[in-house]
Amino acid sequence: MTEEVTEQGAPEDEMDVSQQSPLNGPGVAPDPEWFEQVADEPPYSRNVRTTPLHLDAADESRTNSWSEWAGYTVAQVYTSIEQEYDALRTRAGVSDISPLTKVRISGREGVTYLDRLLTRPVGDLESNHSKRAVLCDGNGHVIAEGVVFRLGDEEFRLVLRSSHMDWLMQSALGIDVQLEDVSGTIAGLSLAGPLADSVLAMAGVKQPAELSKHQGMWAELGGMPVYMSRTGMMGGLDYELWCDPSDASVVWRRLLSVGKAVGLRPVGAAVRDIARLENGVALEGIDYHSAFTTLEPSDALSPYDLCLGGCVDLDRSVFNGQSALRKIADSGSTSALVGLEFDLADAAIVGPICNGDKQVGKITSLAWSPTLQCTIALGLVEASALGASDGFSIKTQAGENVPAKLTKRPFLHFS
Amino acid sequence: MSDDALHYDAIVVGAGHNGLVAAGYLAKAGKNVVVLDGAEAVGGAAQTAEISPDYQVSTAAHLISGFPRQIEKDLKLSKHGLAWATKDMATVALDRDGKHIVLSSSRKSDLATITAHVSQDGDAWKAFEGRVAKYVKLLRPLLDRRLPSVSADAATKTAAMLALRLEKMGPADLRAFLQLVPSSIAALLDRSFEGDLIKGALSLEATLGAHAGPHTPGTAFSFIYKRTQEAIGQGMGYPVGGTGALTEALASAAEAQGARIRLESAVTEILVEDGHTTGVRLADGTIFEAPIVLSSVDPKTTCLDLVGARHFETPTVTHVSRIKMKGATAKINLALEGLPTFENFSDREYGGRLLIAPDMGTVERSFTAAKRGELTLEPVMELVIPSYHDPRLAPMGHHVMSIIVPNVPFDVEGGWDEQKEPFVKRVIDTISDYAPDLSDKIIAGEVLTPPELEERFGWGNRGWHQGNMSFDQLLAFRPAPGMATHEAGISGLYLCGVGTHPGGGLTGLPGKLSAETALAAEKRS
Fold first, then answer.
1. CA distance B93 to B359
2. In a domain, A157, yes or no
3. Of the candidates A117, A170, A318, which has its C-beta nearest B275's C-beta?
4. Angstrom distances, CA of residue B227 to CA of B217, B233, B475
5. DSSP output for B431-497
6. Chain B contact for A108, CB < 8 A?
7. B-side interface with A, Cβ within 8 Å?
8. Contacts of B302 in chain A (CB under 8 A)
9. pTM, two decimal places
10. Are the C-beta atoms of B235 and B88 separated by less than 8 Å?
11. Which residue of B has its CA nearest to A317?
12. For residue A388, how many other CB atoms are within 10 A of its CB?
């Protein structure tokens, strides 16, 4: 006992005081006291979560208007919808997309795993490229859609709007692949608008314009490493910046300070929703429900119903939903998600979609498009109604029929 | 060997009884079939081997109760050496005072053995058997044929078929049956009988080989299911030469039709290309090609290990990986230099299936001990003296005894090295309570603990049935939801082991139905 004490005590006595300083580099074990103690938090104990950009967003907010996104609080409107929309479509807008679910997929059989998980193969995806990813269940119904990035030979990142880790884990059984939910360790910023390139250039990013659609690359922004990808759902020139949560604030402030000169503004969720609708993007949880969350089995939709048939490659080795999708492809889908334009400013009074007197569908989301100067909407209609000679109309709650034009998505085209 | 020699119409993985039945039917239909098995002999769990020179016994499975006459006829098994030593064994519940109960018969003398314990149980037995017969009639049409075909949802169709038959039963029987499905066998028996011994014996019958006790919910249905399987068979018994003689006859019948059986050829991989089965790979790398592969290996191992999870959609993998397989048993085979003396035993009892289960509490306690990884102090068991009907198994005047002890944990507390000897002593002592001279007559013995059964047959800790025979894993849910048609979900791959419909026991039906499915699918395309 005494011996032990002397043995441990001896070197400490001889040690030079300067050697104990944390600044002296390796060789000295850091004292836990130096760091802030964070108590372990039980899962789901917190109902309101904030993103790494929350305080920065609060700084910019003039309205104190927030909304909820996957449990996180994000700004709904920073200044006004008109100003933000104008910035996004004519200059540039930046927004916080950190609440997205990000899953790191690594390991020898990452390609095998994703090929089985997604409705089309990823083997042909080059490093630093991405493609749209659709996940189906065994009945061929869409669970989620998102984007899959290839970051290296054996490393992928799947970005989804909602977490489906249990399904992802079940699908990994017997495949040499590691999955990690990295949502909390990667912050996301969206930078979109015709002047997005200029903003990036002004912020010091070299040749952002060389990046083609769906491509990604590492860059340095405000001295911070940032993975920059030409992805997003705003339409037009769309960038997404992925970085460490602790760097996010620096990146955000750097973009806003250099972008001020060209009219860059932070854009809230309200305008993002208008913009994605103009771009014709349907969202899980809004326009349709994930196959896992529908109450009625018949509410679950196949990729064909959502007009995502282009994302399905049937003739290859087995993938989730393959056999069911083959049958659906043969028999044809029963419903279709379509774009509609009509002239009705008051969204609150919109009723079902009709074909003549017959009710054939419902509106899933709609917005007034300032650029198109009309109301645009996504609607789910019976597939059989698509070929009908009568046009569609929207029945208002007052019983009035407003003619609606079937429009190919996206509504808004960018040169 | 030329390349051609390794190309077949169909490959059967595993030379157990179901694999051989499947091979027999495929060969009979003109297919060029090869059966591959890693073992040195055919038979799987139905093998006869020597305990010591001149004493032969069915090493693992020792009774056959559900083998249909149809398969025997179709494959001409009698021509290939199958002869039954006995087909009408009585079930005998042993009593310490010599008042044994003889079950499974309507003979007056048997009934008297029941009333000797509790007088009203005689009538109760008649009523009980009558009710069981009704349920058996209800289920039987579901068991000896393939479940409704793939086209529609098999589960729904089976449910509809069952619903129709239930409706026909009348309200009183319907109510009783619906009450029975989730019941424990203990609840069913307590409703029916007074006597402890009869309840003990029947509860052992219901739970033998399962990871369950008399009070486990669902065991009442398992009992009815077992009885239905027996009704399809030809009565309880064993062939001359033990259960191994059945598989040898099956092997010979299959070979006579042109099938090849290759032993010491363990299949390590079932090959799949673009969603089609193309053949198998052996441990030494040899590839056998065939567009049809039937696997009698349990569904979990077949799908997840031999084929690989990646070749199935996630829901299938999830279902298959959740198949419950549990229920460890031990097997003890004894060589005896004479017939042990049981009090009040006559010919019928010696040749019967003997159950040691004095009451349900003892059976339940043995299961409770197994759950805790312990060995019970009062083991329950099923024993048979196969040499009684088949004297050639042992030298003149000598006998062999085959004992199945259920509820023996795979990982026993203290380890098997230490526990094996006391365990065997306890079993012998228990039998000696009924046949005091048993230990004097033992000249050799063989003890197969669950780890040893695992090593020899591969099912030490997973039960005999490649999946528990409980309601949630039977009929449309066997082996897993959506897989009840013997098709594994990959074109050309079929499951033919006891893990598939209609389930466990030496019935040959999974093999037959699987082969029929494969042949029907080929005809369709």
1. 10
2. yes
3. A318
4. 18, 10, 15
5. HHTTSTTHHHHEEEEEEE-HHHHHHHHS-TTSTTTTS--SGGGSGGGSSSTT-TTSB-SSBTEEE-S
6. no
7. 274-275, 304, 308-318, 321, 489-490
8. none
9. 0.85
10. yes
11. B274
12. 14
Total tally of structural domains belonging to chain A = 3
Which DSSP symbol is given to B306? I
User: Residue A274 in contact with residue A369, Cβ under 8 Å?
Assistant: yes
Least CB-CB distance to B313: which of A109, A112, A320?
A: A320
Scanning B257-346, the segments in alpha helix (DSSP H) are 299-300, 314-321
Q: Are B320 and B484 in contact (CB under 8 A)?
A: no
CA distance A149 to A146: 10
In angstroms, the separation between the Cα of residue B320 and the nearest Cα of chain A is 11
* Chain A residues touching residue B483 (CB < 8 angstroms): none
CB contact under 8 A, A138 and B275: no
B352: pLDDT strictly greater than 80 = yes
pLDDT of residue B355: 96
Angstrom distance (rounded) from CA B226 to CA A258:
79
Residue A50 counted as domain residue = no
Find out whether B494 and B353 touch, Cβ atoms under 8 Å. Answer: no
Q: How many CB pairs under 8 A join A and B?
A: 50
What is the per-residue pLDDT across B213-265, written as a single tens digit (0 to 9) for each? 999 999 999 999 999 999 998 888 999 999 999 999 999 999 999 999 999 99
Model confidence at A2, pLDDT cuts 50, 70, 90, reads very low
Domain range summary for chain B, segments of one domain joined by +: 3-44+66-83+239-323+479-524, 130-232
- From the list B275, B304, B313, the residue facing A321 with the nearest CB is B313
C-alpha–C-alpha distance, residues A232 and A238, integer Å: 6
- Single out the residue in A133, A156, A184 at which a domain terminates: A184
Of B90, B105, B112, B45, nearest to B385 by C-alpha is B90
Instruction: Provide the CATH number for the domain around residue A387.
Output: 2.40.30.110
Does residue A29 sit in the same domain as residue A105?
A: no
Largest separation between any pair of C-alpha atoms in chain A: 98
Whether the link from the prior residue into A410 is cis, omega within 30° of 0, is yes
In this structure, are strands A401-407 and B10-13 parallel, antiparallel, or unpaired?
Answer: unpaired
* ipTM exceeding the 0.85 mark: no
- Residues of chain A with pLDDT > 70: what percent? 92
In chain B, pLDDT over 90 holds for what percent of residues? 68
Residue B189: which of B65, B327, B359, B379 has the closest Cα?
B359
Q: DSSP assignment, residue A47?
A: S
Residues of B in contact with A117 (CB under 8 A): 314
Separation between Cα atoms, residue A47 and residue A68, nearest integer Å:
11
Domain residues for the domain of A365 are 322-407
Q: Kindly determine whether residue A319 and residue B313, on different chains, have CB atoms separated by under 8 Å.
A: yes
Residues forming beta bridges with residue A160, ordered by sequence position: A101, A146
Q: Which of these three, A184, A211, A236, is where a domain ends?
A: A184
CA distance A175 to chain B (A): 7
- A317 interfaces chain B, CB cutoff of 8 Å: yes
CATH of the domain at A164: 3.30.70.1400
Tell me the residue ranges of DSSP E strands in B40-100.
48-52, 55-58, 84-86, 91-93
Model confidence over B42-59: pLDDT tens digits? 998 899 999 999 999 999
The amino acid at A346 = D
Tell me the CATH class for B3-44+66-83+239-323+479-524: alpha beta
- Cα separation, A189 vs A52, in Å, equals 11
Q: Is A399 among the domain residues? A: yes
Does residue A147 form part of some domain? yes
pLDDT computed for residue B37 by the predictor: 94
Q: Which residues of chain A does B308 touch, with a Cβ-Cβ cutoff of 8 Å?
A: 174
Locate the chain B residue with the closest alpha carbon to A320.
B313
Question: Which positions ≥6 away from B159 have C-beta within 8 Å?
Answer: B476
